[in-house]
Design a protein that fits this description.
- The chain contains 3 helices and no strands.
- By secondary structure, the protein is mainly α.
- It has a domain of about 90 residues.
- Helix 1 packs antiparallel against helix 3.
Length: about 130
């Protein structure tokens, strides 16, 4: 009994059909993921912010309790003046790290919202 061999044209049609099915499945998966992000971006942002703040705070407490000065800059008072400004300037790397960890999820959420709005946005309102 002979096995049926596909002609090159039939092979191309079969490959085209498979690729269309894969594209449809990928499109459904992408739309599901975008819908999940649209529905849950607030809670994801909140979890990211609280986790980053908690991690940075526990790291700072650990460094202070063990006396390590690897990531905490000691308090410097070279110039007389407002002690709060001196404190902020001496701990600027720590403060900027916390600020970036807080702002990064918000910036990413904003960017995703704008991109999805541009890609899947409907008609503009009058």
């Amino acid at each position: 009994m002979k096995s049926y061999k596909l002609t090159p044209l039939d092979e191309l049609h079969l490959e085209k059909k498979k690729l269309r099915e894969e594209r449809a499945i990928s499109g459904q998966r992408l739309s599901y993921q975008i819908q999940y992000l649209a529905d849950n971006w607030g809670s994801m942002l909140t979890k990211g912010v609280t986790t980053s703040i908690k991690n940075k705070f526990s790291e700072t407490v650990d460094n202070l309790s063990y006396g390590s000065s690897s990531s905490v800059v000691p308090f410097k008072t070279k110039k007389p003046g407002n002690p709060w400004i001196n404190l902020a300037l001496s701990n600027l790397p720590l403060i900027s790290g916390i600020a970036w960890n807080v702002a990064k999820p918000a910036i990413l959420a904003f960017a995703v919202k704008k991109i999805t709005g541009r890609l899947f946005g409907g008609k503009k309102r009058k």
